Amino acid sequence: MTVSSIRWRRLAATIVLAFACATAALAQDRRGFAPVDLSTVRAITAEHGMVVAQERLAAEIGAGILRQGGNAVDAAVATGFALAVTYPRAGNIGGGGFMVIHSAARNEAVAIDYRETAPGAITPDVFLGADGKPDTDKSRNSALGIGVPGTVAGLALALEKYGSGRFTLAQILTPAIALARDGFVVADDLADTLSDMYRRMGRWSNSAKAFSRSDGTPLQEGDRLIQPDLAATLAAIAAQGPRGFYEGPVAERLAKAVRDGGGLMTSDDLKSYQAVTRDPVRGTYRGYDIVSMPLPSSGGMVLLETLNILEGFPMAELKQGSAASLHLMIEAMKRAYADRARYLGDPVFVNAPVNAMISKEYAARQRATIDLGRSTPAGDVLAVSPREGSNTTHYSVVDSSGNAVSNTYTLNFPYGVGLVAEGTGVLLNNELDDFTAAPGASNAFGLVGLEANLPGPGKRPLSSMSPTIVLKDGKPVLITGSPGGSRIISAVLQVVIDVLDYKMDVADAVAAPRVHHQWMPDEVRAERGFPDEVLEELRAKGHKVVVPLGQTSVNSIAVTPNGLLGAPDPRTRGAAAVGQ
Fold first, then answer.
1. Using 50, 70 and 90 to split pLDDT, how confident is the model at 425?
2. How far separated are the first and last CA of the chain, in Å rounded?
3. Residue 386: what pLDDT?
4. Which residues are paired to 470 by β-bridges?
5. Which of 41, 135, 369, 549 has a C-alpha 20 to 30 A away from that of 329?
6. Model confidence at 439, in pLDDT bands (50, 70, 90)?
7. Phi and psi dihedrals of 44, rounded to 5?
8. 521: cis peptide before it, omega within 30°?
9. Residues paired with 210 in a beta bridge
10. In this structure, which long-range contacts are made by residues 10-13, counting pairs with CB atoms below 8 Å and at least 24 apart in sequence?
11. Does the pLDDT value for residue 118 go beyond 80?
12. 38-54 pLDDT, tens digit each
């Protein structure tokens, strides 16, 4: 046994002990998902194009762009900017994310990384307290957790390089500007979540004002949300492009708000931000091509490693939702999430064994360690090494030409850190909590990280966002992704398995209850809706099952010979599929 493996085992043992003493929070949102009667679930059909998003107004704006002759990228960018107005808990221009694009004409895919970056003044110990231990308040509740936003740069890059050319950025922004300027009626998920999060935003006087009635109480369902400062910021972007956000008065106000709040971001950090075009991570599963997000998202790699492990099992012969099927998925997840913690981080700073981790050979070795009858303790899944010889919203778009976009972007917590920068209307993220405060520490979703994901100047924190496109013979058959922090990957995985292995209708696959295991804490999170006997059988195999799971929202599109099927996730009130 090598010195490094001994060190890793010792650290793993320490982590196991820590989680045995106290279970880490998987998320801020602990709400259970009321099970859906699948007989009542129906996909929305369309022939020429489809947008599926967590908020209807934004989805309608994207679909309107398709009707005017725009392609999937045009519609995705319009939807993204509109969600910044209508879905402030996660839609944003003050955060960042990832976009995966499939171009039908060129039969190629590209990934756009517009993840937030750490300010230049950050240090590896920035989130430690005076005692040298992680101080979660610093990364989650203070301005120190604010990363340099990437959304404006990423959406603008997507439109410029992969849009149809029919629309300028100003034209794409026009509907979002109008919604911010004229307002819209508070409803659905915004009404469900705003009052709870108002206390968090209330720590910042400007944030409270932005989402308040005239009497100082939070807006309620039926009230009108008008955001004149955000309209002005979007207008500056329309007039000047990304420079209207990353330079000049808007950038100065953003930097001042962060500094006044005790954070580190400067105007120079904003000016130097760049979105990055990357090659997607690719793999295969039972004859289908899986295209997903590469590092600094861990999503694509963990998804592919898990699918590769499962490919060696006869999943279709096991009943969907049975203990036998769930046991295999849980054990595969456990191994892939352990590799996430051990190896992954920003590819500029970390040389992760990407090709080895997503290889079929490595999956076979991982598969051989799975006991069909018993749960493997988390501390025992680390013996196989790939070295031989790191709150959110998702939307999916397809156009009439077969172009597809899967986009996931985030503020981290619902409504981010809760700070609206004075004079901008921009709600800022707390995304730097996705760094590892210290080796072996966990973030707000309980995800453990090691040295590869420590903070550093200009570094992008590891993410779980997993925008994914599934192809057959070069053509999209499934566009999917989800919010949900560490639960994103497992949610996407189960929709893929349900559609490809169990041949479920996409709406049924999206609505079906889900499970989650992320290596640490060593427990299975399960949504309500599974039969008691299934959960008891999992417990009999040695799994610690905890209910509820917490929210995910896998807004998906299936492309079938009979047209497009849009499946908004019923877990989010107001999620919508809009087709043409």
1. very high
2. 60
3. 55
4. 290, 478
5. 41
6. confident
7. -90, 130
8. yes
9. none
10. 11/439, 11/440, 11/450, 12/378, 12/379, 12/382, 13/379
11. yes
12. 667 899 999 999 999 99
> 151, 193, 233, 392: which one is catalytic?
392
Q: Tokens 């992320």 belong to which residue?
A: 518
Q: Is the CB of residue 409 less than 8 Å from the CB of residue 80? A: yes
How crowded is residue 63: how many other Cβ atoms within 10 Å of its Cβ? 28
pLDDT given for residue 204 in this prediction: 86
Residue 429 DSSP code: P
- pLDDT(22) > 50: no
DSSP, collapsed to helix, strand or coil, labels residue 351 as: coil
**Would you call 392 a catalytic residue per the annotation?**
yes
What's the 3-state SS for 97-134?
EEEEEEECCCCEEEEEEECCECCCCCCCCCCECCCCCE
Of the candidates 329, 344, 338, 342, the residue with the CA atom closest to the CA atom of residue 298: 344
Residue 477 near residue 471, CB atoms below 8 Å: yes
- Tens digit of pLDDT for each residue in 472-482? 999 999 999 99
Q: 550: phi > 0 → left, psi -120 to 50 → alpha, else beta; which?
A: left
pLDDT at residue 29 tops 50: no
pLDDT at 298 over 90: yes
φ, ψ of residue 479 to 5 degrees: the values are -120, 125
> How far is it, in rounded angstroms, from Cα 334 to Cα 486?
12
DSSP 3-state percent helix, strand, coil across the chain (nearest 5): 40, 15, 45
pLDDT one-digit tens code per residue, 485-544: 999 999 999 999 999 999 999 999 999 999 999 998 999 999 999 999 999 999 999 999
pLDDT computed for residue 7 by the predictor: 47
- What is the per-residue burial (b if ≥16 Cβ within 10 Å, else e) of 397-421? bbbbebbbbbbbbbbbbbbbbbbbb
The DSSP call for residue 38 is G
Q: Which two tokens stand for residue 347?
A: 């590819």
DSSP run (H or E) holding 409:
strand 404-410
CA nearest neighbour of 147 among 410, 329, 341, 386: 410
Q: Look at strands 563-567 and 556-560 and give their pairing.
A: antiparallel
Place of tokens 């998202």: 297
